[in-house]
Amino acid sequence: MISITALESNLTDCNSRPIKLAQATSNFKEGEKLGEGGFGGVYIGFIPDLQSYVAVKKILRSSKQRSKEYALEVKIISQLRHRNLVQLIGWCYERKFLLVYVFMPNGSLDSHLFKEQSLLTWETRYKIAQGLASGLLYLHKEGEQCVLHRDIKSSNVMSDSNFNPKLGDFGLARLVDHGKQSQTTILAGTMGCMAPDYVNTGKASKVYSFGVVALEIACGREPIDPKYGSS
């Protein structure tokens, strides 16, 4: 695991050779931004000593609650090791909240399904759906506790150079004892991807959002698309 100190300080690899994250991302230049969500932006960076690109997630630090969410995300994903999960390689929590991931050259699934970045073959679509299912099985069954992602959607499914899927963004994830359900009074997730009964029960579904993504992969339509109207 790479050790990352504050933004103004150093990123250190296994040989303790310092590299600045700000330099790696051109000081978080807008042109280096890969995407942006409710928690902040993701930037591409190049680390010469590692001879590789990385994705740096810069999280907005606006509240104590956000601090707790960041700490929980680091705790959860730093323990995960699976071929279909985006690999976390470092983090920073002094002054700035930063997460450093392995860079995914083919970007997010939604960019291929809805933004016409490339046309996915049926073989590739099947591989993505199967890989995502494998990653979720690992999260739900193979750890000491069940990991509920709570925000499974096509924009959080990344792809490497061979279109192997990698589920990312664990900012809303929760650890739950096996055999129990996560219940909350605050909804977490994305409209169109959450189970309808979640609003009333407060219990997050393990599989509903996967079904939504599977339908998106099959038909190439978003779960909520105003141009098609209501049915």
From TrEMBL:
Keyword ATP-binding: yes
Pfam families xref list: Pkinase
Keyword Transmembrane in annotation: yes
Protein kinase domain sequence ranges: 28-231
Gene Ontology CC annotations of this record: plasma membrane
Similarity comment: In the N-terminal section; belongs to the leguminous lectin family. In the C-terminal section; belongs to the protein kinase superfamily. Ser/Thr protein kinase family.
UniProt-recorded Gene Ontology molecular function terms: ATP binding; protein kinase activity
Originating species: Prunus dulcis (Almond)
Subcellular location: Cell membrane
UniProt keyword terms in alphabetical order: ATP-binding, Cell membrane, Glycoprotein, Membrane, Nucleotide-binding, Receptor, Signal, Transmembrane, Transmembrane helix
Main location: membrane
Topological type in the membrane: Single-pass type I membrane protein
Example of a GO biological process term: defense response to oomycetes
Protein name (record): Protein kinase domain-containing protein
Residues that hold ATP according to the record: K58
Domain of life of the source: Eukaryota
InterPro entries noted in UniProt: Kinase-like_dom_sf (IPR011009), L-type_Lectin-RKs (IPR050528), Prot_kinase_dom (IPR000719), Protein_kinase_ATP_BS (IPR017441)
